[in-house]
Specification:
The chain is an alpha/beta fold. Helices cover 43% and strands 17% of the residues. Helix 9 crosses helix 12, helix 12 runs antiparallel to helix 13 and helix 13 packs antiparallel against helix 14. The chain starts with a helix and ends with a strand. Bound molecules: zinc ion (ZN). The site of zinc ion (ZN) has 3 residues, from loops.
Length: 680
């Protein structure tokens, strides 16, 4: 089925060619809506044209006024030069940040310094996120040194208290991939994201080491001013933002989309020159094989889009709204070039969210299995991978989260390497890119896209059975994991009988949820089958098999639990009573969120419509629930205008294994105040 494609493509795809693309793209400073982004997009288009592909630049207004769905178009930004120099105390004078050394040394989208350049005092903030941080410091007319949340510090220090600019020296730790001090000399990617009505402000970025030194110096001066000279020669104006779109034409009006973001500061080699390069290489290799007649012209079009992350996808989809229902599937490539031993993370297939069940996951996973079969054991009885790899549930954070949103409905897995120690820092450089990884990803991408583009009833019959088999395997393993968890929980502590009884009722809910997702995933294949009459019978058989398997698994699991209960002398198990709804649950059951925009909400400009109190509440909610953002995303996907927030929250729990109703009630409440959702 897909194997002949994989084999043919495997002979043409070159990780080294993809590496050269990375090298070229990473020369450009690719801030969304900037001359550097335009140059990178032009490079990609000209290069693909050179290989004979139909490639074009698509231009959109970058005016700070137009919206694509809920997403506000940035204004264009360009910067000629920027520098921050310490000038007082004179004996310590030195350059602190220079644009010509690293583009990361500036907070992106900085406004020009007032009067061309300025001398200004530095004030050290604790974090600068709370009112209390400003009790004993006057920041008006000064620059603040902070490692707090940039947006928040901007609002607190600049907008509310009149600071002129920000110096940022923040870093992360993400053990075990990134330990304390490992990035002491790296600059972190930092940007203002203007909504348009803010007070202008400039800002610089220091390495954590330089930041520490400057903080020490301010302390040593004991109140004597520490001053810097700052110059930012930049412009923010109405301009344009571009996507590169290359097309392998098919014969029907349906299409498969390959997306990668081409933006980010120079060099940002892995994030995401690598994804753009892998997409380009998949396009080049496929086109060549089609032109040579090695692969037939596909039935459906394959469209490659290299875009400024999110903004470019919103623009592309909003512009082609009538085509969306013809987009059969997508794939997103993000950070796919990592040298694994240096950067840390495995290559991951991230599945679609469960509100958008689809065949795409099984297809990408079976291709992945083939690519993983790299080397054999001594006896030759098994093959396996030499690289790190994983398959994970949906987590979002890149362009696939727009495609896979049920209001868009184009199922899109993502290939990504995560974690990456150097992500969003000046250390994300070309020497950390592995041509072999790029080659693997280009091969997987090309095989996936071409298989879907060319699939008909025959392929659908195979794919449906592959989907059903994988769903069944996942169901069996998950049910057994639940049994293990239930029995383990009942080993110690109080009320083991009650725990086991509850486990059975939970298990029933989970199995029926899983089955509904599995059945939908199998049904999604139908789209490829051209209404072939034989296919209907195949689908029916697979679905009834799945349902039968669900029943069998349920019985087996319940039996295992009750047998265990008997062996422990706990039988018969007590009946589980349905509890009464708690106050919050009653409230949530009366809220039916209705989405007002297609695609995920892009809250940036909308937050500014809130009152100061509500903005504070939004900030606090985000800070206290940093790990729960995914719950908000998933809840939006499940919110179909008919489900109550309580039902949505229960689905989120089934999908993510956890939920937080209090968070979701506050989250949707604030989105409603912003005008992004309504309550029916
Ligand atoms: Zn990124």
């Amino acid at each position: 089925m897909f194997k002949p494609i994989l084999e043919k493509l495997g002979k043409e795809v070159s990780g080294d060619i993809a590496f050269n693309f990375v090298s070229e793209i990473s020369r450009h400073h690719r801030i969304q809506a900037s001359p550097g982004l335009r140059a990178a997009v032009n490079y990609a288009v000209e290069t693909l044209k050179g290989y004979g592909l139909d490639a074009r630049v698509h231009e959109y207004p970058a005016d700070g006024e137009s919206y694509c769905w809920s997403s506000l178009q940035f204004k264009e930004w360009s910067c000629r030069d920027a520098e921050l120099r310490l000038i007082e105390p004179a004996e310590e004078a030195r350059p602190l940040a220079r644009w010509s050394e690293s583009k990361f040394s500036l907070i992106q989208r900085s406004h020009p310094t007032p009067g061309g350049c300025c001398e200004v005092e530095v004030v050290v903030l604790d974090k600068g996120e709370e009112d209390a941080d400003y009790k004993r410091v006057d920041v008006e007319g000064k620059v603040v040194l902070t490692n707090g949340d940039l947006n928040r510090v901007y609002e607190m220090a600049v907008e509310r208290r009149g600071a002129l600019g920000i110096i940022f020296d923040g870093t992360w730790v993400r053990p075990p991939a990134l330990l304390e001090g490992e990035l002491d000399d790296a600059l972190r990617y930092t940007s203002f994201w203007w909504a348009g009505d803010e007070k202008p402000c400039f800002g610089f970025v220091l390495t954590p080491r330089t930041g520490r030194w400057l903080r020490e110096l301010v302390k040593k001066q004991r109140g004597k001013p520490v001053k810097v000279w700052a110059k930012v020669d930049s412009q923010i104006y109405s301009g344009s933002i571009e996507n590169a779109v290359a097309t392998i034409p098919g014969e029907t009006n349906e299409e498969v989309v390959v997306v990668a973001h081409i933006c980010h500061p120079q060099p940002s080699a892995n994030d995401n020159a690598s994804g753009s390069a892998a997409a380009m290489e998949a396009a080049r290799a496929l086109w060549k094989l089609i032109a040579q007649g090695v692969l037939p012209k596909p039935r459906r079009t394959i469209r490659f889009t290299l875009v400024p992350e999110m903004a470019g996808t919103y623009a592309h989809l909003a512009e082609n709204e009538e085509r969306i229902s013809k987009m059969v599937a997508a794939i997103n490539l993000d950070m796919v070039g990592e040298k694994q031993d240096v950067c840390g993370g495995p290559l991951i297939v991230e599945r679609t969210p469960e509100a958008t069940p689809s065949f795409v996951n099984a297809l990408m996973e079976v291709i992945f299995d083939e690519v993983k079969a790299e080397v054999g054991n001594l006896g030759g009885s098994a093959k396996y991978a030499l690289f790190k790899h994983a398959v994970t549930p949906f987590s979002g954070g890149s362009d696939h989260y727009i495609y896979s949103d049920p209001t868009v409905g184009v199922p899109s897995p993502m290939l990504i390497q995560w974690p990456d120690k150097f992500w969003h820092t000046s250390y994300d450089t070309l020497d950390k890119v592995d041509p072999e990884m790029l080659g693997k990803v280009a091969l997987m991408t090309g095989t996936y896209a071409y298989f879907i583009a060319n699939a008909g009833p025959k392929e659908a019959i195979w794919l449906a059975s592959e989907v059903a088999a994988r769903q069944k395997r996942d169901l069996v393993m998950e049910v057994q994991a639940q049994v293990t968890a239930a029995l383990s929980a009942a080993v110690e502590g109080e009320d083991p009988g009650k725990k086991l009884a509850e486990a059975i009722s939970k298990l029933r809910k989970r199995i029926s949820y899983r089955l509904s997702r599995s059945v939908e995933a199998v049904r999604s294949v139908r789209r490829l089958a051209d209404e072939d009459p034989r296919y209907g019978a195949v689908e029916e058989r697979l679905i009834s098999e799945l349902e039968a398997a669900g029943k069998t698994e349920r019985k087996l699991a319940e039996k295992a639990i009750t047998d265990y209960a008997e062996a422990r002398g706990l039988a018969p198990l007590p009946r589980v009573r349905k509890g009464r709804l708690k106050k919050l649950e009653r409230k949530a059951s009366g809220i039916v969120p209705r989405r007002l925009f297609r695609g995920p909400v892009s809250v940036r400009p909308w937050v500014r419509k809130l009152s100061r109190e509500d903005r504070d509440a939004w900030w606090r909610l985000g800070k206290e629930h940093r790990e729960d953002q995914i719950l908000g995303t998933l809840a939006m996907y499940w919110a179909d205008g008919e489900r109550s927030l309580l039902e949505v929250s229960r689905l989120v729990e089934l999908e993510a294994g956890r939920t937080d109703l209090e968070y979701l009630v506050s989250y949707f409440g604030l989105l409603r105040k912003m005008g992004l959702v309504d309550f029916a």
